[in-house]
Design goal:
- This protein is an alpha+beta fold and 232 residues long.
- It has a domain of 147 residues: Muramoyl-pentapeptide Carboxypeptidase, domain 2.
- Helices cover 29% and strands 13% of the residues.
- The strands form 2 sheets. Strands 2, 4, 5, 6, 7 and 8 form a 6-stranded mixed beta sheet that branches. It has a two-stranded antiparallel sheet with strand order 1-3.
């Protein structure tokens, strides 16, 4: 396990949309890719409209995920929670989170929209301005060990500051549990970034490859545009 600090990334609120030159890679199921990669389609199991009982990625992203999985020791595997996400599912997630915020006292307006998009990308049906998961280049995942999913400090889709990838990096007085969580997050982060993914700094579970968020961080051209529907 690589126990090296997660670096502080330069982030900006300026919206920059990298250009996309679609490479033509197919979307593939990853449920039978490797014994080291399990799938738990989170949104399907939790009844979200448009969710599918499998997880899908672009061929290149799937190959990198497999490369990272091969570095896991015996008894450990990735658990993929989500990959390619349809517009219908993205809208369902967005609307559910919106309703949760409104129940907490938020009201319709710019501030609500800004809070929403910190954690859930705005649904888009434009292939050239896609939400990250619409491209098939975004993956949400964790690690499972002999005793189940390892401790990461929050559940998946925890929309609080504790979900930020580096949340445990800046605390000098961590207890034993906190140190274990920090170590686990570092492990996942370095496994995925080590093979070419980038991480969304507000979500320890979210990694990108080939899509606009990845291209922006890598200062490259994106190779994955949005995929509106899976091929038969």
């Amino acid at each position: 396990m690589l126990d090296v600090a997660i670096p502080l990334e330069q982030t900006t609120d300026v919206i920059v949309t990298p250009s996309i030159v679609e490479c033509g890679e197919k979307i593939v199921s990853i449920s039978h890719l490797s014994e080291k990669i399990k799938v738990y389609p989170y949104y399907y199991h939790h009844g979200y409209e448009g969710a599918l009982p499998d997880c899908f990625l672009r061929e290149g992203a799937a190959a990198l995920l497999l490369k990272a999985a091969e570095q896991l020791p015996a008894g450990y595997s990735f658990v993929v929670l989500d990959g390619w996400r349809s517009f219908k599912l993205q809208t369902s997630i967005y609307e559910r989170f919106k309703q949760e915020l409104m129940k907490k006292g938020w009201t319709e307006g710019i501030e609500l929209e800004e809070e929403l998009t910190k954690f859930v990308a705005l649904p888009s049906e434009d292939p050239m301005r896609p939400s990250p998961h619409l491209t098939g280049g975004a993956v949400d995942l964790t690690i499972s060990g002999p005793d189940g999913w390892i401790e990461m400090g929050t559940s998946f889709d925890d929309f609080t500051s504790k979900a930020m990838t580096r949340f445990y990096e800046d605390d000098a007085d961590l207890d034993e549990q906190g140190e274990a969580i920090r170590k686990n997050r570092r492990w996942l982060y370095h496994l995925l970034t080590g093979v070419g993914f980038t991480n969304y700094h507000k979500e320890w579970w979210h990694f990108d490859y080939g899509n606009p968020p990845w291209a922006k961080k890598k200062q490259q051209t994106a190779i994955y545009q949005g995929i509106i529907a899976l091929s038969a």
